Amino acid sequence: MTLAPVSARAPAVLKPAAPYARIKQHLKDELARGRWPPGAPMPSDAELVAQFGVSRMTVTRALNELRAEGLVERVQGVGTFAAHLFPVSSTLRIRDLHEEIVARGHRHHAVVHVARQEVATDALALRLGLAAGAPVFHTLIVHFEDGSPLQCEDRYVNPACAPGYLDNDFTQITPTQYLLQVAPLWEAQYSIEAALPTAQEARLLGIGRDAPCLIVVRRTVSQDTPITLARLVHPGSRYLLQGAFKP
């Protein structure tokens, strides 16, 4: 048996996407373009059956997969609705620190050290999709659990996504709570590392410069527009990052 030279091989033939996959991708594309805002009703099963000329089972599979990804909500006997996009994926969920602390039966309070409009540096502007020198909102907040500093939150916000950001009292509402209300989350990129705090972070958290910390840097996006870039620093001795996986 001999193999034909690469130049003589027939070009690969791409198989057309399965009908359910075409429906799923169409709906994802329209959601990304903002055709249905969070909570808005989407086409019914019967409408999708007629539009794509497929069976109801095919439509159901496409919608169930979108629901599993957190992109739609299905209410039996009522219909399908665009989800409030707090879940980023099936394995990542943006949770508010206040909710985490209260869920543990503890008390949360915050101290705001910075809340102002600044000029974006070149590097920051690039991450937030802004022009260099454009205005950007900046907050620096320390969150406490039962009186002990738990997180130093250094956050920059794209004013186009949340023009009223600086009008909030962040001792009463967290930035995460507010941003999830006004800028539905579509995508997030994040990094997690064990590292030492900066001098400022160590001072605000009441720890030594040599104290190991868990540092999360998170960038969120809504419909291709960057919303925020946040550096979240947690003293390693006071914070445990937990998760679960179920195949």
How does this model look, in words?
With 247 residues, the chain is α+β, with helices and mostly antiparallel strands. It has two domains: 19-82, Arc Repressor Mutant, subunit A, CATH 1.10.10; 97-235, Chorismate lyase-like (Chorismate lyase). Helices cover 26% and strands 29% of the residues. The chain is built from seven helices and eight strands; from the N terminus they run H-H-H-E-E-H-E-H-E-E-H-E-H-E-E. The protein has helices at residues 19-32, 45-52, 56-68, 97-103, 122-128, 175-182, 199-205; strands at 72-75, 79-82, 108-119, 135-145, 148-157, 187-195, 213-222, 225-235. Strand 1 and strand 2 form a beta hairpin. Helix 1 crosses helix 3 and helix 2 crosses helix 3. The protein is elongated and about 65 Å long. The chain starts with 18 loop residues before the first helix and ends in a 12-residue tail after the last strand. Mean pLDDT is 84; it is low at 1-14 and 86-92.
